[in-house]
């Protein structure tokens, strides 16, 4: 065995076995060794799916490092990677991807000029990954002074030709805040300014892999009530809390275009508290696949200004 060269030894091992062995090594060691290993091993380490397999095996730990970045620089995180906004005055600010374990940084090009307010801002970007390829992408939204909405995307590490406009100019959406969900990004936004009398609420969906963008109008109930996007189920679902703040409905989109919404369950929650109080926010953090049980995370402000957190277990009834 000792007389055989490395090429002969590695040929006895299938790619799956080699990948399984390599995922057990420290990320810093793999990065430093990439230029020293044979080509088949280098190809495995460089694949996006290997990075995700390595991440699943890695154990969380405290990073003993000193960084010069403040919390204001950190805009988003995904799979341990950080999306940073780097001030560059008088030049435009720009995005940078940082791996805090290896220290590897990737500077992204400036966002597309000519989109009005299309510079790097904390409220307008998110780091996402393709569910099929594992490739990371940054999504950036921009609004122009004439109330146009642009959505552009870039692949981290190159490929695709820089920033790509995937929405085209459409009537402006405001205050877009994305939520990741299994290779998709979803957001809820009102078309136009909040003061528009005839504006409506929409759910925006972006397929990160295919880079396709869709907009769907929300059900009528969400025009007047509070609503929350549920990302714990694979389908598009909304939790709407009525003005009483004790009755909750779950609506689901029955088609890809979001034309038909159906109320599938209703919940009652006992949110009675002593003294004066008001509910700040309600979000669903846990539920079963059949939607018959739901745990709500409720933030409450009492009359004296004290903030409290309440966990409420709801039993649901099927809606006709």
UniProtKB/TrEMBL annotation:
Gene3D superfamilies: 1.20.1280.50. Residues 73-264 form the F-box associated beta-propeller type domain. Pfam families: FBA_3. InterPro entries: F-box-assoc_dom_typ3 (IPR013187), F-box-assoc_interact_dom (IPR017451), F-box-like_dom_sf (IPR036047), SCF_F-box_component (IPR050796). This is F-box associated beta-propeller type 3 domain-containing protein. It comes from Acorus calamus.
